[in-house]
Please model this.
Amino acid sequence: MQFTLILIVFGLVFMRNVRTISVDEHGYILYCPCMGRFGNQADHFLGALGFAHGLNRTLVLPPWVEYRKGEAKSIQVPFDQYFQVAALSEYHKVITMENFMTQLAPALWPPAERVSFCYTERMGLDGRVNGSCNAKSGNPFGPFWDTFSVDFAKSEFFGPKLNYDVYHHDMASKWTEKYPADKWPVIAFTGAPASFPIQRENRELHQYLRWSVKIENAARDFIRSSLPKGAFMGIHLRNGLDWVRACDHVKESANLFSSPQCLGYRNEKGSLTLDMCLPSKDIIIRQIKRQIKNHKEAYKNNDIKSIFVASDSNHMIHDLNEALKRMNVTVVKLSENNPHVDLAILGMSNHFIGNCVSSYSAFVKRERDAKGFPSSFWAFPAEKHSLKATNAGLTHEEL
Ligand SMILES: *[C@@H]1O[C@H](CO)[C@@H](O)[C@H](O)[C@H]1NC(C)=O
Ligand SMILES: *[C@@H]1O[C@H](CO)[C@@H](O)[C@H](O)[C@H]1NC(C)=O
Ligand SMILES: *[C@@H]1O[C@H](CO)[C@@H](O)[C@H](O)[C@H]1NC(C)=O
Model:
């Protein structure tokens, strides 16, 4: 009797295990989100998701790579700390890297078969190329794979015949032909199998990227407890020193970083200006005021009561509060630094004004597009046009 019970219990546990470790015969995609901070990694993530979907391989969800002041090595934050795995599963097969490494890798990806994929040879720390992807050389490359005790036995170069654009040239079949899943169950990329900025076709995949309950609740709690009742506007001010320097490149570029999100991928909607990259205080205040008025006209009895500011450097809280005092609008920010909760709050705002060049703003814009929420960008379209276009008869004095 007892023995049978034990057998049944054992059988149940065993069956559960069997179910959780069932192997995808179409294979797996792994990669290191080794470029940039969160905004860039999110662009790359959606690209990798589209790529894995194109090849019908399970996408292994990598941790997010973060950098802390004063620490030489990157820190890896499990994917599901920020996002829901289940929501992604609605679109495609996924597994967290933690689960993949503990449950599948020992049998499916033994150390001797760990091959790193890259387009072409990558320089090592000594500055030489030597027939290797050198997938672990440098930060965050080394620390990322070390988090899972991964070393690579070999390198594989897939360029120049293959690329990541699975929406053209039958690229997915070419990958599957060259790297069939029975011989290559795991393809581990040195960097993300995706472009930056995000390819147009992958933008809509953002609808499957939903904040974890923890982040979502933190955002809602802040809105409930720290914002006055009523509508609020979210704004992103990207103005740190690194950004000021990056905006220097506006002069020689038609598009920069995420700017295709407003200018179009072939500049069909306009050209890049310094104001778009680094709007002046004047532009920012004018545009907020204009948007408050637009909102008042469009949504009766739901006036903007507050502005929520996210910034990497200067939130301009004092300047904005001074400028908006007479409109009864208060300006607030999170009391502590939390870029992900910032993003979640911006995503929930009644209107969002972002920086067209910034991938951080691009994250918010895509999320809001998926939800049908309105957004606009600093200094785009260029001010003269927009004043003429809306022809509201507003002068700067009135604003
Ligand atoms: C994709 O993979 C899944 C299993 O992982 C399989 O059920 C499905 O038929 C595959 N689709 C195609 C088009 O091969
Ligand atoms: C290439 O050089 C790196 C050091 O820069 C070394 O760790 C690696 O083993 C070398 N790989 C090959 C294939 O020679
Ligand atoms: C600002 O708020 C106060 C108090 O709620 C109210 O009396 C006043 O009319 C408001 N002013 C404007 C311009 O809405």
